[in-house]
Amino acid sequence: MSRADLSLTAGFILVVTVSVIQGQNGWTVTYTSNQICALEGSTVDIHCTYTYPSRIKDLDTEVEKTFWFIKLQNEEPVDLRADSQFSGRVQYHCSKNSCTMKITDLRVSDSAVYKFKFISNHPGGRYVGEPGVTLSVTDLKVVSKLSIYSYWAELTCRSSCSLPGHIFYIWYKNEETIVISETYSDYIDSQNSYSCAVRGHEDVPSHPVCVHSESCNKVIYTGRSICAFKGSSVDISCTYTSVGYITSKLWFRSERSRQWQNPSQPEDLSKDSQYSGRFQVFETETGRSTLRITDLRETDSAQYYFKFITWGFEWRSSLPGTTLTVTDPTLQVQVIWSSVGPKLVCHSSCLPPGRSFVWYRNEKKIQGETSPSYSGYVEPADSYSCSIEGPEGYRSLPVCEF
């Protein structure tokens, strides 16, 4: 019997043990666990092992291809690496009789049934492991139970699937830690916002919520993690609300602490010489602030935070802001073989937000191809390369061996 082991980094697993033996005549894929509950933004590893006959009709068996899938196209499984939904977020680590798939930066839309398939050198020698592994990706939400007689409230941190074990949550008021407990009960000030995170996984907290009113002091970042290329530009945004009149607001990074007199007085990026001529803050609408940094450098990689101050309140946070990672461009065309021929995927270890892909055949741009997966027919005699749309002009090396 083969075994499938499921593990999760920066997230959680709900394991349901079942006795499943699949296969016939030595072809097997067996799952000892069939469900995972993982936090949005975390990383998951799904590992399986498989068996097959060592020899059929005097011919040694060789496995020619292994892959994971969730979709069918023309009744054929689509290799997850060729699915634009997972561009830059899926890696395979396979060896003899085992294969591990890693998915990073999990999204709620990744919730699906994942199946493993292997193909051998024998006619008809292909096998799909059923029933697969059900992955449920959840975010956290604060749910309040209010008293009808006072401002007393009980707050619960909810997920859409059951996280395993005895979970403790870290509770935050205005993103500052207040207590570690399963629930939080207290007299709730309507001016404050409340959020929660699983202890040990503070990098994926819930959104802050107002309990007794529609408006309170809070900051919500548009994205917790952004990757960008050196020399390019990036926008880091957040929305914010304040009960009082705001007297000042600023963006800062935690690592630039040499001028901090105390944690409540960070260094305003507009006064930092490192960003001179490359820094801009603007508001396209009331309550939305955007930090734009141009001509990015690797030294710009940091955690970025937004802060506002009123006459009687100062926004502080012990939670992560937006993490910016600036890196060299690394584009590569991966050739993935399928039943209908080669599929081309433009792979990048860093996928800047809001960028489209550009494909080239024999150094000429192919019109209408903007996905990381090339949808056209691959001509064996032609060369193909890809780039990410933008002024930087980064392009992969061409591939021409099919």
TrEMBL record:
Species this protein is from: Channa argus
Protein name: Ig-like domain-containing protein
Classification via InterPro entries: Ig-like_dom (IPR007110), Ig-like_dom_sf (IPR036179), Ig-like_fold (IPR013783), Ig_CD22 (IPR056386), Ig_sub (IPR003599), Ig_V-set (IPR013106)
Superkingdom field: Eukaryota
Keywords: Signal
Domain Ig-like: 131-212, 320-398
Protein's UniProt keywords contain Kinase: no
Keyword field contains Phosphoprotein: no
Pfam families, per database record: Ig_CD22, V-set
Signal peptide: 1-23
